[in-house]
Design goal:
Chain lengths: 198, 355
Amino acid sequence: MSKFEFPPSIRSRPVYGTLEARPGKGHLMIADGEGAEAILAIATPELMAHAHIIYIPRGSDFTERLRALTPAQFYEGPSYAASVQRIRRVLQGAHMGLQVYLAGTEGLMGQAQNEAMQAGIPHTAIQTEHRGSVARRMQCVHCKGITEDVETDPFVCSHCGLNLFVRDHYSRRLAAYQGVCIDAEDPGNIPEPKGIYE
Amino acid sequence: MTIQFNDETFRDDYSFHNSDWAIKRFPFPFHEDSYMYAVNMEQHRGGPEGSVYEKRFDVDEHYVSEMRDRAMVLADDPLRCQSLGHMTLAGWDLLELIMVSKSEDYPDLFELHRDGNTWRWINKPLGIDDTFTFLDETTLPYGPMEYITRQAQGDFCLLDQRDGNLWMDAGMVTTQADWSLDFDIGMNFFEWHAPVPLAHEMGIFQRALKFLLNIQQGAPARRLNWTMTVNPLLDTSPENYHKWGIQKTTLTPDNIGAKQHLRVELQTFFRLPRSNGLVFPIRCYLCSFQDLMTMPKWGRRLHRVVRDLPDELATYKGFIDNRPMILDYLSQFDDGKPTSPGVWPDAETEPPLAR
């Protein structure tokens, strides 16, 4: 088990719940890494008979256990970027009554939620459960580049190289937190990076 | 009166300046000697003659130069103006509201001639004379929101109303107090205000939202907000913060009167007729400390407000590091005398500064 209790924060910061099986005509489950455990926790033969699992292992080895659930469809992707076309296609063909379940890292859940919203599913109807890494997907407000899997605050923008501090302000549309230059008023004065929740 | 438009800059050499007329009508935001958040909404139904509250969309001596600055910001960063797909109709609503208001309120500067859906718009200060078809985007050089807000001072947020909330789904934002439209677009009222300290706990946003959801056509509302800016820089965006943030460190006791500016936002709220959206114009007025100090009442009051402001607010407004120097300066203009109630300078009746 790997559940992390996020500290209370501001209103734009997403809040994650615990997945529960809900009645539906179909069940789209998208997870990465230890998010597999959240699916395993709710899987029943009835649910799996109409489930499509899209799983990105990211170095963990839950694939065989998920496959053993014998979902109606199972796909293992090497990365989110490689899987996103498939996610879009599945959402495009979705019917009323589809349940969407997202589990794993914030980056995975945020991006998949965004795809579901663009397909017309309100974000409040999408279930999420955080598992695994607490790293964040960050947008540099200056160059607009996205840096994936940011674990420290501050961090270096992987696009423009500015030293950015990690805000809790979050955009669902970008599926990213905001990073802002930390030494703008005192160039070169960059605190030692710490874990985001340390 | 005919407005003499300044030729001035809001960057580089900062030649921005306020005339005596502009100082006298500056929307000083403090009605008493202290400040705390409040919803502080009132009807936007005109105001004293010559004041910034008199017209629906105030036009002042900075108009032409502000529009030039906006064009420069947009050339550098087109993401400052965005509109989600469902907001085009609200953009037409806004275009109509501004064209009708300005042509009625400033007939010597703006003309609107309507023949069915064929509209001719004349903007004399900017030298524009365009004929287009209302509700047909192909007949304008930009989308309707961008077209008209390239010709109107202040930032503009177009808010969609649904699910009992307001959604920031379009905007023209180039003169903002450090928030990013590109990041906040698509957020609801509580989400885009999320970084504001204290006010959530005070219930400010719940009450404000309730008020705004019920704004009716023809009954706009307004309020003031304020912050501080070093140099008369309109584009205090987060996008460019890594470039302008350093300017905060250039204050000295000798230059603070000229460099430190009180930045006041006149925020207005209008219901839009076709889309049932709201437009939220945020008009920025800047005034240097030394110009503010020409009004004895404002000098006394600004010192007391800044001195007693909670640290959270001074931090959020970005001047906590400079507050000691600001107070050293402002204290020279506070002789301890009482101030009259209300925001007006009362220059004729307030006592001169006792040294």
